[in-house]
């Protein structure tokens, strides 16, 4: 199921969604004006929900549209879930 983004704070250009133990944020930034400063576009990032660490910017950010940023987040979630499913569990098999 695709991520369902909602506006994190009313009146801002920040949207968030979470699924499968990961949090995703899309924010709009521009070189001038209110809000986040940087190259013009939508920045997508993610982080694990159960860890106190900073977020990781998704490759390609900033993106030209919200839809592109949303697609990038959904693609990253699919990748993260696949990596988690194929990661070793750390359990040893009996000899």
UniProtKB/TrEMBL annotation:
Superkingdom field: Bacteria
- Annotated protein name in UniProt: Uncharacterized protein
Q: Which organism is it from?
A: Bradyrhizobium yuanmingense
């Amino acid at each position: 199921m695709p991520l369902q983004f909602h506006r994190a704070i009313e009146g801002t250009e920040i949207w968030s969604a979470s699924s499968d133990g990961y949090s995703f944020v899309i924010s709009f930034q521009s070189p001038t004006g209110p809000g986040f400063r940087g190259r013009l576009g939508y920045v997508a990032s993610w982080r694990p929900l159960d860890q106190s660490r900073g977020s990781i910017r998704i490759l390609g950010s900033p993106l030209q549209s919200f839809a592109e940023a949303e697609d990038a987040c959904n693609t990253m979630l699919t990748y993260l879930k696949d990596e988690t499913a194929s990661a070793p569990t750390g359990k040893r098999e009996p000899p």
